[in-house]
Amino acid sequence: MFDVGSTLEITRRADAAGEVDSTPVLQTRMIDAGGGSGPGITPDALATVRERLASTPDPHTDAERIDLVRALEDLKNTASAVQARVTVAFAESQEAAQAARRRDVDELGKPGPKSIAAQIALARRESPHRGQRLVGLARGLTQMPHTSAALAAGVLTEHRASVLVTETNHLTAEDRAVVDSRIAGDLDDLDGLGTRALVSKARQIAYELDPEAAVDRTRRAEGERCVTLRPAPDTMAYLTALLPVAQGVSAYAALVRAADQQRVTGDPRSRGQVMADTLVARLTGRESADATPVEINLLLTDATMLSTSEEPAQLGGHGPIPAPLARRLISTAATQAEAWLRRVYADPETGQLVTMESRRRAFTKTQAEFLGLRDRTCRTPYCDAPIRHVDHVTAHAADGSTSLTNGQGLCEACNHAKRARGWRHTALPDGSVNLTTPTGHRHRSRAPAPPGSA
Ligand SMILES: [Zn+2]
Prior knowledge:
By secondary structure, the protein is an alpha+beta fold. It has helices at 43-54, 62-100, 113-123, 128-141, 145-152, 158-168, 173-184, 187-190, 195-209, 211-222, 245-264, 271-284, 302-305, 323-335, 365-375, 412-419, and strands spanning 8-14, 20-28, 226-232, 236-242, 298-299, 313-315, 319-321, 357-358, 389-392, 402-403, 407-410, 424-427, 433-436, 442-445.
């Protein structure tokens, strides 16, 4: 082993007979796990360490370079372990404060787990959805001391530790501890294991320990079946269905069969192409994939539409697309009399989309559509989730106006998190929103620049 720099090390208790106790004991030199009496490290001190780290000179030999790469990898994992521990302490402290004032519950009538996850997410520059997973990982690790120790020792990455937590989260604490010690009890065994191997090993032990729980888990997982869309490179998109295994296999087999039949007739398209075209045709109920109507929101400048500008257009639910593709979509749709063109005006001075004011409590359909086009995705920093709620930045009850400057698109989770105690959103004249979390940390959310504003 090389020397990591002695920030953290794992030792094992040996009993009188020299037998190694399997319980790992974390000994930290820089970070104190206890009540703050030992040496610790503050965010300011860490900033100094980072500065020194960033200016580390290139080592003299390749062997030293590899040593440094490995040491830095270990450091990231150790940092993840500390983040997990601090996350649990934060969650427990927030929950204790919430329990102390029982009337403070979020809209759903439960203490605000979303508020906790949202704060962790902002601190880690992650989406609120990912924040929830990270809080879950941190809590799971408290039941898995060996896995935690392996993470702290740098042997496991955060991703692999989270895989172990996920694969055991349906088990009782006792069974979970068994998986933990059998997989991560010996760091040498763990070293060199790939993620897939780790998953198989964890599943195998979990199935053995509690086959019934595994079946229940399958049933619950089936409840999470869904279809999602996300952008792929080169203006393509991934349409993904999460299905019970039998349905997934049979749907795929149906596409393979269709492709095979088609290819027998001499169709020049590749098998993959026929499968993709068949999928689209069957889902949309159209004869062919090309006839798909433009039931999509396209945001573009007049100049782009008239070919005098090549500024990319914005496709709702996807992101930017090249100008020629936008024009092609419009002309295809126009020949089938199914083009829906929405005119959105930009302020010639600022390029910001022009606002419309209303005295009503609820946003009009036009305003809501406008906000959807302007914000594109949830306005919370790092959250890429689709917009589900058009929200008053300052609540209507607190005299917030029903105007586009006081409006923002939020996803469901963020809309609920916002209502938890201690969160404050403030709209600024330039259309950005200041977001203050319960701990007083501030974040700025800017609406994306519309086409024509560059
Ligand atoms: Zn969101």
